[in-house]
User: Which sequence fits this backbone?
């Protein structure tokens, strides 16, 4: 599937759905309803509505279209958008509630309707970055170079204390993420940033069409730099997996031009996840969190069954995506480590900003991007495709642990990528 084609198909009707990123508060209450939609390759009937994924013939079946129309008439709903999800064999519709009926009451009725396979609220999710705090000023000069020659010629490397804590320079002697594709589901990214040139190989947007400002790309650009900023290019910083390739699926929008807070919803995230699954991207970064969500959970679970690795930012309340079985969770070393979670530095981590800038970033989003980069290093160090459980074993040194016996350290050490690489070497040697 060509995801660029997907984005073009969606763009025509997205404009009619909402006119600005803040659409969630400008309309009547909205819900998402799913209908069974068996895969087929025949052309859609004349006059049929609903988008389709270009290139594979997956369309809205007439039966699903009719069911959606009848359900709308039964419950006084107004359809504002729809799209088929091949991975789930489902046609999803976003409806507005036009008669003022309470959302919980309506969802309860829809859950008992035989025509419906899924009914849920249109929910909102947020990135997990901390408010800006005092940090050393990052400049584009090498004024802070130490007396010992650094392993990179990137002038801001000495300010990347997180790379020292994670042992990245040593790991880069073995692997730098070459050949690994990473889906970044986030805001848009400044692909023209000098430290990201050549790293972004695919982009698709599922947010409302609008004229982007540089500030609209803050969070995604920051995560992209942590994961894959180019090394040894005499510019800026070093990414954890500098030879990995990023595929950007824009599902979130910045809430404030002066901060990194960004939001997404069930609708935009579902499209981005479906796009990443259709593209066959093996590793997905989700530096965001929100309430448990049936549709998004079904998409992630479908990907895990196919061998896709999902990395999520741990949140105080378990929800999407961190509570899904098989998702690898990341948290900062500066806070107590939640159960079954891997730690990485998450305070004052230097990264890329739009318009060729750099600044410090803090929050669990940062730890998520770092763990994603480390997993990319492991994936590129072996010709064998690693499973989620294998990666967990390599990073922790033991099988996945559940229950109260799992990690719960007050001052957790960061993951040891070099120990994980040694375990990987040992396992490959034993397999010969």
Assistant:
């Amino acid at each position: 599937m060509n995801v660029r084609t997907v984005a073009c198909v969606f763009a025509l009707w997205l404009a009619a759905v909402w006119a600005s990123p803040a659409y969630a508060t400008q309309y009547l209450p909205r819900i998402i309803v799913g209908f069974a939609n068996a895969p087929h390759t025949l052309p859609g009937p004349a006059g049929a509505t609903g988008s389709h994924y270009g290139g594979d013939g997956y369309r809205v079946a007439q039966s699903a279209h009719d069911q959606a129309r009848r359900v709308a008439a039964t419950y006084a709903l107004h359809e504002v958008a729809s799209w088929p999800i091949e991975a789930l064999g489902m046609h999803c519709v976003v409806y507005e509630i036009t008669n003022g009926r309470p959302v919980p009451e309506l969802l309860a009725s829809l859950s008992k309707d035989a025509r419906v396979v899924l009914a849920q609220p249109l929910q909102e999710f947020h990135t997990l970055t901390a408010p800006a705090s005092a940090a050393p000023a990052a400049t584009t000069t090498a004024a802070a170079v130490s007396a010992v020659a650094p392993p990179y010629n990137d002038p801001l490397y000495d300010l990347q204390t997180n790379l020292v804590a994670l042992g990245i320079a040593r790991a880069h002697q073995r692997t730098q993420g070459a050949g690994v594709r990473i889906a970044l589901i986030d805001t848009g990214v400044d692909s023209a940033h000098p430290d990201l040139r050549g790293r972004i190989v695919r982009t698709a947007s599922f947010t409302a069409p609008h004229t982007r400002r540089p500030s609209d790309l803050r969070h995604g650009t920051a995560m992209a730099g942590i994961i894959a900023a180019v090394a040894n290019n005499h510019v800026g910083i070093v990414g954890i997996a500098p030879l990995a390739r990023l595929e950007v699926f824009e599902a979130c929008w910045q809430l404030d031009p002066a901060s990194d807070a960004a939001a997404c919803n069930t609708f935009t995230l579902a499209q981005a996840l479906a796009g990443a699954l259709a593209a066959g991207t093996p590793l997905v970064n989700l530096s965001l969190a929100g309430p448990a969500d049936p549709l998004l959970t079904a998409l992630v679970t479908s990907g895990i069954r196919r061998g896709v690795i999902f990395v999520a930012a741990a949140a105080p309340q378990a929800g999407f995506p961190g509570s899904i079985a098989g998702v690898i969770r990341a948290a900062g070393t500066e806070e107590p480590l939640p159960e079954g979670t891997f730690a990485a530095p998450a305070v004052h981590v230097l990264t890329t900003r739009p318009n060729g800038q750099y600044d410090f970033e803090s929050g669990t989003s940062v730890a998520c991007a770092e763990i994603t980069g480390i997993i990319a290093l492991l994936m590129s160090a072996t010709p064998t495709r690693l499973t989620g459980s294998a990666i967990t074993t390599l990073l922790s040194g033991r099988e996945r642990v559940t229950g109260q016996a799992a990690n719960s350290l007050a001052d957790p050490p960061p993951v040891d990528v070099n120990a994980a690489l040694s375990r990987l070497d040992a396992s490959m040697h034993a397999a010969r």
In short: The chain has two domains: 3-122, 157-431. Residues 157-431 form a domain with the Rossmann fold fold (CATH 3.40.50.200).
